[in-house]
């Protein structure tokens, strides 16, 4: 049974001989290897390198900013609601009107603000004797 795989090698009287292919070297054999794939790999590597050095840090910074703004919004909301709850709690707990919780919280926040204001220009600690100074 003939499968056709060796039909060109069988010797029949009316079979035409196979055409000879000219022996000019192709571009891929001159360069050596699969140069289009190598060129594509070089381009992909260059693009990935540029992306890793530019886009990736920018994306990390943007992601940090988005999460920071989100966290800041949540924290500010929690602080405001906590102050409102504290005023209401003090209003219920103290026998007088709402002016006393406002007065108490005003004194606390003023004292805290004055303390932070005093510390804003605190001098840097001086280095110990014998330690090298950084300049």
Short description:
With 135 residues, the protein is an all-alpha fold. The protein is built from four helices and no strands.
Per-chain topology:
Blueprint lengths: L26 H5 L3 H19 L1 H39 L5 H20 L17
List keywords for this structure.
135 residues; mainly alpha
Question: How does this model look, in words?
Answer:
It is a single chain. This protein is mostly helical and 135 residues long. The protein has a domain at 53-120. It has helices spanning 27-31, 35-53, 55-93, 99-118. The chain is elongated, with a radius of gyration of 41 Å. The model has no long low-confidence stretch (mean pLDDT 81).
Classify the secondary structure makeup into a structural class. Answer: mainly alpha
Report the mean per-residue pLDDT as an integer: 81
Give helix and strand order, one letter per element, not per position.
HHHH
User: Given the structure, what is the number of helices?
Assistant: 4
Largest sheet: none
What best-fitting shape do the alpha-carbon axes yield? elongated
**N→C terminal distance:** 93 Å
Which regions contain 5 or more consecutive residues with pLDDT less than 50? none
Count of DSSP strands: 0
Radius of gyration based on Cα positions: 41 Å
Helix content: 55-70%
Q: What percent strand?
A: under 5%
């Amino acid at each position: 049974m003939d499968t056709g795989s060796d039909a060109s090698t069988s010797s029949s009287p009316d079979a035409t001989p196979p055409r000879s292919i000219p022996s000019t070297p192709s571009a891929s054999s001159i360069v050596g290897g699969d140069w289009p794939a190598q060129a594509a790999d070089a381009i992909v590597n260059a693009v990935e390198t540029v992306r890793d050095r530019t886009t990736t840090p920018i994306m990390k910074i943007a992601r940090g900013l988005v999460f920071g703004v989100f966290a800041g919004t949540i924290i500010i909301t929690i602080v405001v609601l906590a102050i409102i709850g504290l005023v209401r709690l003090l209003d219920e707990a103290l026998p007088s009107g709402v002016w006393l919780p406002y007065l108490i919280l005003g004194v606390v926040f003023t004292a805290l603000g004055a303390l932070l204001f005093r510390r804003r220009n605190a001098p840097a600690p001086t280095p110990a004797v014998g330690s090298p100074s950084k300049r």
